[in-house]
Amino acid sequence: MICSIYKIFLVYQVYQDGLEKAEPFTQNKREMKMNKASMTEKINLLHTAMGKKKADIILRGGKVVDVYTQQIYSADVAICNERIAYVGNAAHTIGPDTKIVDVSHKWLAPGFIDGHLHIGGTHLSMTEFGKVSLLHGGTALATGFFEIAIIQSLEGIRKFLNELKATGVKPLFVIPMSAFHQNEKFENTMTFTEKEALEALEWEECYGVNEVNLSRIAEENQQVLKIVDRAQQLGKILVGHAAGIHGKELQGAMAFCGYISDHEADSAYDAEEKARLGITIALRDGSVGENLQDILEQINGEYEKLGDFGFSTDESDPSRMVYQGYLDLKVKIAIKKGIKPATAIRAASLNMARFFRIDDEIGSITPGKRADILVIDDLKEVHITDVLTDGKFAVRNGEYCRDINAPQYDKKIMNSICLQQITEETIQIKVDTDKSVKVNVIGMNGNPLITDPLQYMMKPENGFIHQDTDRDIAKIVTMDRHNISGKIGIGFIHGFGFRKGAIGSSCNPCSENINLIGTNDKDMVVAANFLIQNQGGYVVVCEGKIIAALRLPIGGICSELPYEEVARGMREVESAAATLGCCFQSIFYKLAFMVYPTQFPSYKLSTHGLVNVSVEKEELIDLICY
Fold first, then answer.
1. 571: nearest Cα among 557, 590, 555, 550
2. Exposed/middle/buried for residue 251 (C-beta within 10 Å: 0-12, 13-18, 19+)
3. 484-503 b/e with 16+ CB inside 10 Å = b?
4. pLDDT of residue 14
């Protein structure tokens, strides 16, 4: 009885004094990642809703997309400080200092949430990415910053995380297992080991683990099991990777994980199998995987088979985001495929907020939630005119309106390529015979992730095996650019369609090395040396001349330029690469996964040599079969 009276006294005292002290009873640390409303803030919200206190902003005359009932109805939205106080006829909340924003004939939707994005793959600085994200409705996203983790470990993650926060976007930081997996057989910078993974899990801003590979769980990889178990102990979320795993292996992995998402579903059958097991499906639409449209077509209107699905991007080049769209594009695709607008918007907001267990903070336009609100003037086209985050405008009339500048990047992050310039001799393939030899060749079949294991008979010339453009066989190279190790992988690849020239990049998952594909060694060397001299980027070379290039000096992965210039530069290098004969879109992203020697079958190249990848394992194989 005394204890109960004491509790009542404490609550009363906080109410009376308006204090913002720590609460007298402990809460799980994970509740502090997105700051909860204090007692004072909640009292202010209560008073605003009752009309005792006046709202700071009223969005008046709009049509609210209710993601709970999936209805759309006319209502005002009253905002007090960072949060929504009232939804309905808000005339009683208007005071002399209330800012009234007329949204007549427009729709109000909750901010969109990306369930899985590799943010460094956009090649934008976090400042510029934040602008693009908000312009296209993305107010929160799950990301691990794995690209910069490979370059600068936790220090790099912290830099990118803080920079992104300043834009108004809410980063749902999940530790990057893509960086951790480089510690396996073939690539290892020692920048993100088990030690760093477990340390980052304890960060206040950490929501969980990114890219939990269910195949690694099924095969009982002890380090992965340990990291996942620790995340579960901390009450954190698992963002999964379930490519190519089915049946008892999938169910076994799910039995261990219990609660997880997946963005790798590539068919309606695949998505339904996973959804039945309680896996949250984050339908992917990006530069590497465009599964959203295919799955919605295959599901034939039976959307309940997907469960409480959401959306994800995985990888997206900057030109795609700027010119085609981001989360707004995913919602638009869903609507065009027959999903009701309110249901599509729910998938982009509430469903993902629920998965990340933050639906008490974001994901809907309801009292008490953070005022992350999109103003839309064409619902079917998902055309966004204005965006508020935490009750303040970030986008006004289609323009980013906050005054922010990117930080100054230090010399270490701007000088991350540790390679001396190379010569043609560096990338030659020498053999001790003048007779034709059987060569293992990576088969690019149009699938951006999975290759074919091919073999070709190739005849040496003067003791060396060269490219064969008549049979669409180019040379592929990947070089360690981190440790001055001299490690270099050289092989052959079929299916890109190059008739001349070469392309090069300093970006690929798990290693971020220097990567080249070319029809002749001279152009490949020019490409490599440009990347080394300019500290990373993308480059296209033909007949010894650079015909297009995009510099990416921030860690060799991102540009310091405005997003418009980066998008234009990306489009230029993609167009230039197409003139060499390649007919694929997102050419450089497809190159990136040809030198990603894990998870996705079959032949891939590493700095140790050619690798045969299966769901169960990866093993080095000989390039030449004597």
1. 550
2. middle
3. eeebbbbbbbbbbbbeebbb
4. 37
Contact (Cβ atoms closer than 8 angstroms) between residue 214 and residue 245: yes
Q: Is 197 helix (H, G, I), strand (E, B) or coil?
A: helix
The residue written with tokens 């450089």 in the block is 588
Give the integer Cα–Cα distance in Å for 542 and 522.
Answer: 9
C-beta of residue 515 within 8 angstroms of C-beta of residue 508: yes
β-sheet bridge partners, residue 604: 611
> How does DSSP classify residue 575?
H
Any alpha helices (H) in 261-326, and if so which ranges?
A: 268-276, 291-298, 318-323
What is the pLDDT, as a whole number, of residue 182?
67
CB atoms within 10 A of CB 608: 16
- Percent of the chain exceeding pLDDT 90 equals 85
Which residue has better confidence, 237 or 584? 237
Alpha helix stretches (DSSP H) within 184-305: 194-201, 214-218, 222-233, 247-257, 268-276, 291-298
Residue 29 has pLDDT above 90, yes or no: no
Query: Of 169, 221, 163, nearest to 197 (Cα)?
Result: 221
> How many Cβ atoms sit within 10 Å of the Cβ of residue 116?
29
Mean pLDDT of the chain: 92
Region at 37 (left for phi over 0; alpha for psi -120 to 50; beta for the rest):
beta
Q: What is the pLDDT of residue 18?
A: 39
Read off the pTM.
Answer: 0.91
